[in-house]
Amino acid sequence: MADKAVVLYSGGLDSTTCLAVARADGFAPHAMSFAYGQRHAIELEKAREYAPRAGAVAHQLVQIDLRQFGGSALTTDQAVPKDRPLDDAIPVTYVPARNTIFLSCALGWAEVLGAFDIYIGVNALDYSGYPDCRPEFIRAFETLANLATRAGVEQAGRYRIHAPLLHLSKAEIIRLGRDLGVDYSLTHSCYDPSPAGLACGRCDSCVLRLKGFAEAGLEDPVAYASPSGP
Questions:
Q1: How far is Cα 62 from Cα 84, in angstroms, rounded to an integer?
Q2: pLDDT exceeds 80 at position 4
Q3: Which residue among 97, 135, 153, 228 has its CA within the 20 to 30 Å range from the CA of 217?
């Protein structure tokens, strides 16, 4: 029987690829998604639909309303930036402490499952402006995981935080997913989709996704309201 792994899974391009990597690594992926008050909650519909088809043996949907705190264009009525030049500054779409919260929940589920491997689809190249997508953060959380759990303290095993996409470009991530059989038509990346669920094509996430597909020499299979192009 394959060892269990918890995979943080939003239904987006990166996390879906990450789930495929966990499966290819020989793990039985247990997917964990979050309804945290995000304005692009359509991604959760994709997560529910795709998780079993992507090979997740279980899918947990955790309810955490981060709108109570705000602080991000994704959890408030603040406008999502469109058509802006991408840089290394921390953007308004950064959700305070989001990956710390998500990894903490994943760690809790992992301890209950008897799993010691957690996968997260963070990327330090395209999202270098996000402090919780850096290698330093991943290393620090892994240290914390082994200090803050019963299983870690009693040395039942050692927790490992896997970030297989950390140093890949978006094009490299897409090629990897293609090779692993990922169906990207069932993913959703847009921060500000239309009422009909169409990707805007103009937010940072859409621009990076479109650029990645173009550089990979592939066509993005999702529908856009107004794609900006690479």
A1: 32
A2: yes
A3: 135
Question: How many residues make up the chain in this entry?
Answer: 230
Least confident range of 89-93, 141-145, 157-161, 213-217 = 89-93
Q: Which two tokens stand for residue 179?
A: 């090779």
**Number of CB atoms found within 10 A of residue 52's CB:** 12
CB atoms within 10 A of CB 79: 9
Q: Return contacts of 68-73, CB within 8 angstroms, 24+ apart.
A: 68/37, 69/96, 71/95, 71/96, 72/96, 73/39, 73/191
The order of strands in the sheet holding 28-35 is 58-63, 28-35, 4-8, 117-119, 160-162
Q: Mapped to the 3 state alphabet, what secondary structure does 145-197 carry?
A: HHHCCHHHHCCCCCCEEECCCCCCCHHHHHHHHHHCCCCHHHCCCCCCCCCCC
Residue ranges of domains in the chain, CATH in brackets: 4-182 (3.40.50.620)
Instruction: Tell me the whole-structure pTM to 2 decimals.
Output: 0.95
SS3 state at 103: helix
Query: Does pLDDT of 33 surpass 90?
Result: yes
- Report the amino acid identity of residue 92: V
Residue 169 exposed, middle or buried by CB count within 10 Å (0-12, 13-18, 19+):
middle
CA 97 to centroid of chain Cα atoms: 14
99 to 22, 78, 94, 205, 224: CA distances (angstroms) = 18, 21, 10, 17, 27
Q: Inform me whether the pLDDT recorded for 205 exceeds 50.
A: yes
Question: Residue 71: is its pLDDT beyond 60?
Answer: yes
